[in-house]
Every structure is written in structure tokens, then in C-alpha cells.
Specification:
22% of the residues lie in helices and 29% in strands. It contains 5 helices and 10 strands, in the order βαβαβαβββαββαββ. Helix 4 links the parallel strand 6 and strand 7. It is of the alpha/beta class. A 7-stranded mixed beta sheet has the order 5-4-3-6-7-10-9, with helices on both faces. The chain has a 3-stranded antiparallel beta sheet with strand order 2-1-8. It has a single domain, classed as Vaccinia Virus protein VP39 (Rossmann fold, 3-Layer(aba) Sandwich). The N terminus is likely disordered.
Length: 214
């Protein structure tokens, strides 16, 4: 689950690459590296806008699992200052403490919440980093209040192009690469109701989103 996720501008430093049209219908595409060209659509901006639109609707106590350096920190700070939410983030890597945010330095799987429950739970890029996926999802279901919302978002492999601002870092990789459909099936099995979802297509970024409710 640990990784650097200060994503205020990170996604904006990437360009999606799409397969050249003439390669898609070529009978040799399975044995060829193919040609990829930059996509002019602002797919990562669209993803961030989609996330912001749903997070803005949240109220009450939020638990952000695998929070890193706090994804969309500016939005959360605005919501905290307006007394819309109380923010708790949990991450095994030591995170710099920020005014208005409660940060727990622990793996979610190891932390004792006692009888504490939350109005909303977020896994914004952490779903595929959970080691014991089903056990962790069952625990998330337990600490989410009845009627509460959970937002799950992660990515699957896609060819992207970084600019000079991107630096190679040693990061903790996925335990799996579940897509939106696979994640939805498991969440339904646990007991979550899928309210909304956005999968991955040729017209989107590499990030899928699932809005679920207990």
C-alpha cells in the first residue's frame, strides 16, 4: 500500500499514448510492438474532475486508506475548513503531519479502530496495494457506517509518456491489476452496493472508479 501519492499535479505531467489506427486492424499486431502516438484528449484532467465531483458530496468523518501525501489535498483542506468533513488518513509510511488532518502511521490491516466507524472510506489508488484483499475489504465494510459511502479507485497497465518533471522512484507495486469489473464483483460479494462506476476505455485515463455504499 505505501507509495508517493502527492497527486495535485502528478497526473497533469503524463500524456496517454494510443495505438495508431492502422495497427488496430493489422494481422501482425500480435507479433509486433505496434506504433503508439500521443493522445490529445486531457484524460487525466477528466479523471481528476470526476473524482473531485464525487468527493465534494461527502460529509462527516472520512477515512482515507493508503493516504500517502494526501491525494487531492487542496480539496480536502477546503472541506475541512468549511467543517464539512473530519479527515483521517492512514498509511504505513511516515507522512508529514498537516494542520486539519489526522494521520495514522500504520498499515490499515494492523490498526485497532476498536468500535470506531466512519461515514465515508476512500481507497484512492490503494485497492490493488492491499495484500489480503478480501480480508481488508471485509474490514472496510465493518468500519463503514450503515448507509456510508466508499470510493475505490486504482489503475491498470497503460502506456503513458512522462515529461522531464517526472522522476523515477522505487515504489511499492501492485499485488494485482484488477479492473473495474473484477473489483465490482468482489465488492458485491462482500456486501457493498455499487452506486456508480467508471471503467477504463480508449477514451479514458488508466484509472477506474467505483462508488459503493453499505
Amino acid at each position: 500500500m505505501p507509495k508517493d501519492r502527492n497527486i495535485k499535479n502528478e497526473f497533469l505531467n503524463y500524456t496517454k499514448l494510443t495505438e495508431e489506427n492502422k495497427c488496430r486492424n493489422c494481422n501482425k499486431r500480435k507479433i509486433c510492438a505496434r506504433i503508439f502516438i500521443p493522445d490529445t484528449k486531457k484524460v487525466f484532467t477528466q479523471y481528476l474532475d470526476y473524482m473531485r465531483s464525487h468527493i465534494k458530496k461527502l460529509k462527516g468523518e472520512i477515512l482515507d486508506i493508503g493516504c500517502g501525501d494526501i491525494y487531492l489535498k487542496d480539496l480536502f483542506l477546503e472541506m475541512v475548513n468549511k467543517n464539512k468533513i473530519k479527515y483521517t488518513g492512514i498509511d504505513p509510511i511516515k507522512i508529514k503531519k498537516e494542520p486539519g488532518f489526522r494521520i495514522i502511521n500504520s498499515r490499515f490491516e494492523d490498526y485497532d479502530f476498536k468500535n470506531k466507524c466512519f461515514d465515508n472510506i476512500l481507497l484512492l489508488g490503494s485497492y490493488n496495494h492491499l495484500y489480503d484483499l478480501e480480508g481488508s475489504l471485509k474490514r472496510i465494510f465493518r468500519v463503514l457506517k450503515k448507509g456510508g459511502y466508499a470510493i475505490f479507485s486504482d489503475n491498470t497497465p497503460m502506456i503513458i509518456l512522462g515529461n522531464k518533471k517526472n522522476k523515477q522512484k522505487k515504489e511499492f507495486e501492485h499485488y494485482r491489476n484488477h479492473n473495474c469489473h473484477q473489483a465490482s464483483l468482489i465488492l458485491k460479494k462482500i456486501g457493498f452496493k455499487i452506486i456508480n462506476h467508471q471503467g477504463i476505455s480508449n477514451n479514458t485515463s488508466s484509472n477506474w472508479v467505483i462508488i459503493a455504499r453499505k
